[in-house]
């Protein structure tokens, strides 16, 4: 099916955040008022308000650009390129920082259709290619304005969005099922070991490095990434490390011929993998256990690998990282993106209980994990089905 192809700037108004000298400074952030969004509030293409900042109504009224209306799209220009969400919170308006852009749809385009297109695998690849190559990945307003959009009639856009809504709901239910299983294991952990913060059972404490080897990844140069082939290995980045599972939709690869001297960065099954940048999102902490029977994968910088010295400690250490004690210990630095430092991670103290208790916990987790593996497989299939359906939808094949 042949649809008109238009530029994004033809069907939407693109609005930058206010970059003037009147831009809100740190001391102008208040506890209540008008919502002030930053890139940390866009997670997995949804609005995440677990951390909220506000500016006063007076300050908001004094600003020029960057003011949100209900159902506007918001897209990130720096950091995680092209993360996109719809502004449909309980707040009637808000303000974006200068690292994002508002996309305000004109009458001929349906915002949910455009949202699905902007978050599709195809467009994500375009954004990666369009990256300016600076130290912090970024897009420009001009690159967005020139982005081409297939545009069927409005009713057809709504029909496609409704189909993708249903497919998206299925994969989110899979994610919720995994989260419930994680919550159950967290309650078992507390029952056996007690709260790591208060340590009611009086266990000895030691740095996590006493029970594991901790490293952060290698600085693979993005300019030297290669296409996937028999001669490449997979790279695990922060974008691939989510809350309890890995997402390989946006995957980078490295030439096997360039691995000499960096063999220590390979990831083994049972390794605990932690994203160090933007570690906490609305669905939890971005940490996973690397599963069995995976292709050769190497660790990239700003991602940590926690390798237990004994295999029975894998599930225990994973749960320690997920505990409130770890969140209390870490104070993510507010640079371009919130960040956990390697020093903080290595200095994190864990309880050192009797091995019999660790074995008991491991046995419970082993039983539950067989069900979780089926859930994770189902999630991967749901993600794959969604991506395939999305590709067909924008090609006019559904």
TrEMBL record:
Keywords in alphabetical order: DNA-binding, Endonuclease, Hydrolase, Nuclease, Restriction system
Matches recorded under Pfam families: Methylase_S (PF01420)
Chain ranges of the Type I restriction modification DNA specificity domain: 3-178
Instruction: Return the EC number.
Output: 3.1.21.-
Q: A Gene Ontology molecular-function term?
A: hydrolase activity
Does Isomerase count among this protein's keywords? no
Q: Which family does it belong to?
A: Belongs to the type-I restriction system S methylase family.
This chain belongs to which protein, by name?
Restriction endonuclease subunit S
- Which species is the source of this protein? Pseudoalteromonas haloplanktis
